[in-house]
Amino acid sequence: MDLVADVLEISGVRGTIGARMEASGTWSVPVAACTTAVLHVVTAGGAWLGLGDSWLELAAGDVVLLPAGPSHVLGSAPGTAGPAVDPAVVARAFEAGEVIRFGAQPARTRVLTIRYDCDHTVHTQILGTLPEVVHIRGDQGEAGFDDTVRMLGRELSHPRLAGRAVLNSLVDVLLVQLVRAWLPTRAGHRGTWLGVLGDPLVHSAMEHLHAEPARQWTTATLASALDVSRATLSRRFAAATGQSPAAYLTQWRMDLAAVRLSKTWDPVESVAVAVGYQSVPAFSRAFARSHGATPGRYRAARRDDGRRSVSIP
């Protein structure tokens, strides 16, 4: 079982193409803070990323992810004050995937920005557990990472049939490859969801919970399935993830239920049974504690949000 894929899917992480920068000479682009994760791919040349008082040099093939979407600057050199850019133009470019050009053409530097959003009502997340900046150099990723970066560059430079579909697939692949490349370097993430990846016993325990979320698991039955003591499982699970097995199972069940309520018209009774509750009142109470609304009200609110987000020509 692929736990990372499970969590990415249940949290609805999806990437969209943002602004593209094509630049020569001196340039600088301020990127406003946003509620999505922001990823920059340098497909040609080089650039600098400024975050607060620190600057990070980016070379061709590099990818940098800012999971919290803070305000930052991209430019040709640290502290460079490039040509004035209308903030409205920058915002529109990021929203519509437009190109921002600086200096003489053809450009020496090309930077693609991708935004990754997710279902923020889901509690089990990966993006929120990543550090403030994740920088993967072009020669640091595993096999295929640089190929994906080159494919993105080619698709953008030479648009072809169904190019948007190709790009949408590539941006999702790139995020997975970035996480793969970063994980071996991780440190200090015990006590978060990512801690599960550092403890084989906890990893196996979580695989059982994900495979059969409706099973009436207890810490004792889970420990028995793993052939360890209840005390050992409790200690290591809490150390790795910051939660008890029972607390994590409840969270995972409520996330599964939230997605099913949002995406289907299955009766609440069916959703309750699917996540291990034979009593609808007990399920409703647990769901309200987790998501701040009863299943029916949550479903209605999500449907209303969906209707408001649809643009009618």
Question: Which labels suit this protein?
Answer:
6-stranded mixed sheet; 11 helices; disordered C terminus
Enumerate how many helices there are, as a single number.
11
Could you name the ranges where pLDDT drops below 50 across 5 or more consecutive residues?
308-313
Oligomer: single chain
Kindly estimate the percentage of residues that lie in beta strands according to DSSP: 15-25%
Average pLDDT figure = 89
| Inertia-based shape | elongated
Class from secondary-structure proportions: alpha+beta
In helices, the fraction of residues equals 40-55%
Query: Could you give a short account of the major beta sheet?
Result: 6 strands, mixed
In short:
With 313 residues, the chain is an alpha+beta fold. It has helices spanning 3-10, 87-96, 145-157, 163-182, 200-211, 219-226, 230-241, 245-263, 268-274, 280-291, 295-309, and strands at residues 14-23, 28-31, 37-44, 46-51, 54-59, 63-66, 72-75, 99-102, 109-117, 134-136.
Q: How would you characterize this protein structure?
A:
This protein has helices spanning about 5-10, 85-95, 145-155, 165-180, 200-210, 220-225, 230-240, 245-265, 270-275, 280-290, 295-310, and strands at about 15-25, 30, 35-45, 45-50, 55-60, 65, 70-75, 100, 110-115, 135. It has about 325 residues and is an alpha+beta fold. Mean pLDDT is about 90; it is low at about 310-313.
